[in-house]
């Protein structure tokens, strides 16, 4: 996996991923940024949410569950002093579908955070991780 991050100006940076996608990041105005794009730590939190959502949907589909949507809401606390690592992250999954089995949803979420989602497993080294979920019948 590769990524190149280039300084644009002020506190704006452009990342180009190995798969050829570009991502803009910017700092808060008090840090010299213009608030034009997400902060790097917001990108990490979004990446963790995307990683686990991907796992949950894939596991449910492979288990022949009729999943139609998956939304993961994350809230995080950070340390007050540098390095301001995440100290707590709460994941709340809203999994929608037809006749979804609660035990299948719970199993998919557990497999993601215990085995497959490298992002949340890494973040779990510094942060207390909490998972809650609900099923929405469609």
Automatic annotation (TrEMBL):
InterPro entries linked to this entry: KH_dom-like_a/b, OsmC/Ohr_fam, OsmC/Ohrsf
Q: Which Gene3D superfamilies match?
A: 2.20.25.10, 3.30.300.20
Pfam families recorded: OsmC
SUPFAM superfamilies membership: OsmC-like
Origin, by domain of life?
A: Bacteria
Q: Which NCBIfam families match?
A: PRK10738.1
Identification of the protein by name: OsmC family protein
Origin species, per record, is: Zoogloea oleivorans
